[in-house]
Amino acid sequence: MSHPTTTGKWLKLCLAGLLGSLIHLPAIASTPPKLGNSQFVDPFIGTGGDGHTFPGAVVPFGMMQLSPDTEAVSRGVDPQPEIYKRCAGYHHDDTTMLGFSHTHFSGTGHSDLGDLLIQPMVGVAHTKPGTVNSPESGYRSRFSHDREWAEPGYYAVDLLDYDIHAEVSTTVRAGIHRYTFSRGNTGHVLMDLTHSIYNFSNKVIWSDARVVDEQTLLLHRRTNGWAKNRPTYFAVQFSRPFDDIELINEDNARYRCNGCLDKGGNKHSTIVNPAEQYTAGKAIKVMAHFNKPTDKPLLIKVGMSAVSHANALENLQAEIPHWNFEQVRSEARSAWDHELAGIDMQGELKEKRQFYTAMYHALQAPSIYQDVNGQYLGVDGAIHKAEGFTNYTLFSLWDTYRALHPLLTYVDPARVNDMITSMLVHYQQSPNKLLPIWSFQGHETWTMIGYHAVSVIADAYLKGIRGFDVELAKEAILATANHPRFDAIPEYKQFGYVPMDVLPESVSITLEYAYDDFTIARFFEALGDKDNAEEFYRRSQFYRNVFDKRVNFMRGLDSKGNWDPDFDPEEAKYMGPFTEGNSYQYTFYVPHDVQGLIDLFGGDKPFVERLDTLFTKELSLEKIKEHEDIAGLIGQYAHGNEPSHHIAYLYNYAGEPWRTQQRIRQIMDTLSSDKPDGLAGNDDVGQMSAWYVFSAIGFYPVAPGDLTYAIGAPQVPQASFRLANGKTFAMTTEGLSQDNLYIQSVTLNGKALKRSYVTHDDIMQGGKLHFVMGNKPNKAWAKAKSQRPPSSTEGR
């Protein structure tokens, strides 16, 4: 538990930099800035269905995500029917709003966060949220999508119960609220430290609130949720002095500041005794009151830190030292324009809306996780200072190694170095000496399987992105892949597979380890370490041990060599042999050695037949009912979850790329749109969006680390990468239309391209990839074995 000191030195620190900031709101000239690609972003895409994105304000890779929360499931209530849809705190189907909290996940299948909810109101100063059916029973307000607006870095809504126009915007570590009151003699602002997005499981274990002066508060809370003992500190400043304030401890007492009067009844601009304006406990709320709220808009600035109150205040003063809301909004928009300029896509408005919104979602995380002074909370619970790099958090690696991290190597390679360095310091600080698995805000959640940080490191290194400690990376990779206590690695090495009687999800773990081992082999091969390369190439073939040739499916195997007697290739059981999938999907999870898998099937024909069956055989929902994540179905194919993301591209490896072209169009047309429900499943911190970006351009990284990209079929007329080396790699089309979905021919820099893949070197050398499209498949293009994407067994 952290309790602020009451010394004069502490008070001076809190007040440092405030002079000159507490000024009147200036008049703002409303000259609209020249808009870049951010004008095509619709933050509401993905907020419906099971997309799990939020519509609120965030800057690229920002530490703060300031967004509305429309529902919180309370403790003691069965959360299953509705909570999954509200992992981001907001769902487009909802009609009432609780307020605006400052931290959110984008697109995850589980949740946490929702730190520091702020809600303005008039009339009764409610401290309880109320209910959906009776929002007037609490601080909740009705709202309408007709009176709701969002753009990158900005969100606004009319709170209908209060006639308040609410607006928010952000910088990296700070946010600004602007509330315009239309009625009421007194306005109220509630700051609720008990609120969480998953209230039923995210418990506040400590919180406190301190009044520094009549415009400044310092707040803090620690929660046990997905992350345990997670601290967040806030510095809050108002654009005008509050007229009254209440510090409310719902577990104990309610303390009223009474306008911050001293014992003689005189009002002070600075609290005479800050220790008297402090409360702490597990259920803290603060209510600030403002007379004549309609006189001018009320602004609230919030700085955030995981380290201390002082750092939160420093972050705030460094990033928003003024009261110019429009400046923050404009700078946020400019930051997005800069990031979204990494790819120039030309197409129809609907295509641009989908494409640039996908980029917008892909460039929100991993997020910066350090204060302006470089301090951050490490996974060891200690405070560290980033030296020579920017620390990042939110590594949803089971999802994002597939397409998001490869995309970042082209659109933001400088950040990739810092992200890998952040993974390496995570390894150093980890009591278990492991690279991150699924981590956020200085905490490891141990969610999902594999050790996919090695894929991100290897892919970057092989692409020449090497601004990290390579020797430390070698150490961390070997320690993680040989860890004696993580997810049955000893048994995996002993048996050549994870036995199903040793660990659940054994088949999926075996297959994902085998892929990760391939990337490790590639990494050490590039380093000239032949022994380690050969060992991990050997391990990368362990996928063969869980392929039952009698049924041509991946299948559970126990430590005695017995196949799973209850095997059903369609069934996806919770903690069964597969992770959020079934054998139909996971049988194709050999992205690094597709030719080897084709050989196990007995050749191209049975392999293609099984691929076709995957897309055409109806999946019984009864057999996947234990997994909410299996969504976006086309037959057995589940685009709403990551194990299926590479599968449509596998026809290339069997010499029938025209079928890949057909499937990509089918997926695009049926499972994505520019509407709120336009994502087929949760976006998983940008992975699904990254899949869309690559697939729209016409190629995809089936196996990150092999430096090739399987060609699918372009879905947009043209696009170009602006590369860090100053070159441009462009994709153009001829004849592309709704009917013309098949590739007739391809040229690379004017020369015929006969192969169904491009390489990393092709991209980095710059130039133009040109597709000629038609309404009938060219079944001869890229059919020969020499024209297919490479596999790890070939040439070895």
From TrEMBL:
One of its GO terms (biological process) is glycoprotein catabolic process. Residues 40-305 form the Glycosyl hydrolase family 92 N-terminal domain. GO terms for cellular component: cytosol. It comes from the Bacteria. One of its GO terms (molecular function) is peptide-N4-(N-acetyl-beta-glucosaminyl)asparagine amidase activity. Keywords: Hydrolase, Signal. NCBIfam families: aman2_put (TIGR01180). This is Sugar hydrolase.
